[in-house]
Amino acid sequence: MGQLSLKDLNNSLTPQYYLHFTLAKILNGSCKTVEFEEGRKLTDFPDPVLLETGNYVLVTGKRLTDGSVLSSLTFFDIKSFRTIDYLQNPALLQIRSVSLNMHSP
Amino acid sequence: MKEAALEINHWCYEKVNYRGTDSRTSAPISTISKTFGRCGEESTFTVAAMRTAGIPARQVYTPRWAHTDDNHAWVEVWIDGKWHFMGACEPDTDLDRGWLSEPSQRTMLIHTRTYGHYFETEKVLDARDRFSELNLTANYAATKQVTVQVIKSDGMAAESAKVEFKLYNYAEFYPLATILTDSPNTT
A12-71, pLDDT tens digit by residue? Predict the structure, then answer.
């Protein structure tokens, strides 16, 4: 097992699991979302979170009023007896969802 | 036929209203008995009611919406040589009407499943021994053909590489469809 420390820094809201962020373990190239209860607040997670060692992705997202999403993907490894800090701040996310150009050939 | 389908959907609405339930889908008779169901149960029930009256019907599904979190299921009926949609237990004055006509234009995938192998014109997304999953997105939204090529580190195109097409929903990227690259190295 390894350890992950999730920090909530100056978010305009308290991030909640499945609403603003999830953790997924990457197995054979596919993501398997780690199960925590829906809506659990980041501030209610244990610090650190105990995770199996392996490759992970932290997904964050903020749904905008027009239905589009600001999202980020942060890839990291969990190794034994090592603590990693990751920041989680949807308000600062810069990545826009990409749309297909339906008019190009 | 159209009037019959609209009327049957009214009857379905008299029997069953929307209420969230758990992941087990109740059978149509059970759904009538409890008088409520989520969209998967309402559409299963409505398809059964249509077919009972001899109107061809199929359940249609978007695994995840693009504009908001969660999925949805509804119904299509075969009227005058064409599939038309309706919200299950959501009666309306005409076919192809309802609140889902707007959000369905933004979806990434709408599909249905038909028994066995499929030999007609709609696009097969996933061919299995016992069912075929048909991609119906083009009936609802503007679509285009996209080619994905997977290149290995040696510069060669990878054969049978697994490509997942995912959509952001519930703060995860949900795999809507998984396709293997074929031998000319396209998906």
Answer: 788 999 999 999 999 998 999 999 999 999 989 998 888 999 999 999 998 999 988 988
What would the pLDDT profile of B61-105 be if each residue is shown by its tens digit?
A: 999 999 999 999 999 999 999 999 999 999 999 999 999 999 999
Question: Domain range for residue B66?
Answer: 2-139
**Contact between B88 and B73 (Cβ < 8 Å):** yes
- Domains annotated for chain A, with CATH where assigned, are 2-92 (2.60.40)
Examine the domain organization and report whether B42 and B78 are in the same domain: yes
ipTM topping 0.85 = no
Are B35 and B56 found together in one domain? Answer: yes
State the Cα–Cα distance between residues B24 and B33, nearest whole angstrom. 16
**Residue A26: enclosing H or E segment and its boundaries?**
strand A21-27
Alpha carbons B37 and B49: distance in angstroms, whole number:
15
A22 vs B164, B172, B175: nearest CB: B172
Q: Which of A20, A30, A72 to mutate to test the interface with B (most CBs of B within 10 A)?
A: A30
Is the CB of residue B170 less than 8 Å away from at least one CB of chain A? yes
Task: Identify the residue among B168, B169, B176, B180 best suited for mutation to test binding to A, counting A beta carbons within 10 A and taking the highest.
Answer: B168
Report if pTM > 0.95: no
Number of domains composing chain B: 2
State whether B26 and B72 are in the same domain. yes
Name the phi and psi angles at B4, rounded to 5. -65, -45
Contacts of B142 in chain A (CB under 8 A): 102
Asked whether residue B65 falls in the same domain as residue B42, the answer is yes
CB B171 to CB A19 under 8 A? yes
